[in-house]
Amino acid sequence: MRLKLKLQVDSQFNILPFNYFYPVSAWLYKQINRGDSDFAHWLHQKGYMVKGKHFKHFTFSKIGLRRFRRLNGGLLILDRQVDLHISFLTQKSFESFLSGLFLHQQMDIVDARHQCRFFITQVESLSAPEFKARMHFRSKSPICLSKPVEINGKSGKEFLHPSHPEYGQRLVQNLFFKYLSFKELEKDAAMEDSLMKNFEFKWYEPCKSRLATIKSGSKEETRIRGYLYSFDLTAPPELLRIGYYSGFGEKNSLGFGYVEVMNDK
């Protein structure tokens, strides 16, 4: 399910810090915790697991700003109202619970220099697209994919550009593991074999790099790079549905990998 939240901007606190992905993610966990603390704890600490991988199966878009002015460390919002899209891969029976969590709530995004406050005035459920074997998507938040590398004798990560020769394969492998975790399967040999033989991935310029700082200013500060671009993907419709709702690539619960379906090129 997908929800569109209408956010009223507090005119007294209207400077949005650049690195707002983590605070929005933390706010979403807080709202889920209000409704079901056991589920929120399980989702945050463990989530859906398969083959040692953990998935949260939710993501969100960038905050939709139309008018703003760039300041040192943040954005002065000139709009009175903005929006935020959130997306969950969930069972049908859980959708009404999620839909009722956000209306009339307050969201504060704060760092050492700036503070922004929003009030959720409206929650709209968004209709689902038709999922086909080939679809054209545009990322509305950066898509992150990485591979392990050794840097100066230590384990590290290389964040991959869509032009990387392993990118398409790693993108669909990530979808396949999400599929297994959500379906609570250890394996699906037929699906995996068909996917790896028949998938097609094609990305399009422009492709914009975005570097996000998570837990900025703390001892746990990390930086994550993702890319904004559009792409065609041919794969089983069920996997494309999972990518659409759960997010494409990695770090989805931090706001990476939110896409919209576009008209075929």
From TrEMBL:
Site (described: Transition state stabilizer): K56
- Swiss-Prot/TrEMBL keywords: Antiviral defense, RNA-binding
Q: Active site located where? A: Y29 (proton acceptor), H44 (proton donor)
User: Which Gene3D superfamilies does the UniProt record give?
Assistant: 3.30.70.1890, 3.30.70.1900
Under the heading InterPro entries, the entry gives: Cas_Cas6_C, CRISPR-assoc_prot_Cas6, CRISPR-assoc_prot_Cas6_N_sf
- Residues covered by the CRISPR associated protein Cas6 C-terminal domain: 128-261
For molecular function, the Gene Ontology terms on record are: hydrolase activity, acting on ester bonds; RNA binding
Kindly indicate whether the keyword RNA-binding belongs to this entry. yes
A single GO BP term for this record reads: defense response to virus
The similarity annotation says:
Belongs to the CRISPR-associated protein Cas6/Cse3/CasE family.
Q: Its biological function?
A: CRISPR (clustered regularly interspaced short palindromic repeat), is an adaptive immune system that provides protection against mobile genetic elements (viruses, transposable elements and conjugative plasmids). CRISPR clusters contain sequences complementary to antecedent mobile elements and target invading nucleic acids. CRISPR clusters are transcribed and processed into CRISPR RNA (crRNA).
Q: What is this protein called?
A: CRISPR-associated endoribonuclease
Designated gene of the protein: cas6
